[in-house]
Amino acid sequence: MYKFLTGDPSALSNWTYLNNPPLKAEILAEIELFYLLPHQRRWKEWFPEVIHYSAKINDVRKEVEKMMNQDEWNTNAFPELKDDLLKKLNIQQIPDK
After folding, report:
1. Local structure of residue 28 (DSSP, 8 states)
2. Rg (Cα) of the chain, in Å, rounded?
3. Segment (H or E) for 74
4. Considering only CA atoms, which of 37, 39, 15, 38 is closest in space to residue 27?
5. Which of 8, 18, 25, 26 could join 3 via S-S bond, C-beta 3.0 to 4.6 A?
6. Are 81 and 73 contacting, i.e. CB atoms less than 8 angstroms apart?
């Protein structure tokens, strides 16, 4: 749909987002920002204030540990949220290098 909206004729090819799942969210955000009218963006049926997502705790733990091992965890983004997540996952914080 995104490629059709932007006029890209390659939209008929086999395109998957499996290797980059966040790309799907980025595409939706771009469509919401640039292709919807302001009154459409305020529709609660289309855009609820909260979206719940559930994930298996073991999968989350593996992903966080992978990010820590690849030095992707120690950023300044969302420090309180990350600290709370580490406590809930029972993971020790790796000291900054």
Report:
1. H
2. 18
3. none
4. 15
5. 8
6. no
The answer to whether 64 touches 73, Cβ cutoff 8 Å, is: yes
Instruction: Give the whole-angstrom CA distance, residue 19 versus residue 27.
Output: 15
Q: How far apart are CA 87 and CA 24, in angstroms?
A: 29
Q: How far apart, in whole angstroms, are the C-alpha atoms of residue 75 and residue 14?
A: 35
Encoded tokens for 97: 């290098």
- Are 65 and 91 in contact, with CB atoms under 8 Å apart? yes
Residue 42 · residue 48 · CB < 8 Å = no
Q: Where are the domains of the chain?
A: 2-41, 57-89
Taking only the tens place, the pLDDT of each residue in 5-31 is 776 666 555 556 566 667 777 877 888
Check residue 67 and report its DSSP letter. Answer: H
Residue 58 amino acid letter: N
Average pLDDT of the residues in 43-56: 82
- Amino acid in position 53: Y
CB 57 within 8 A of CB 89: yes
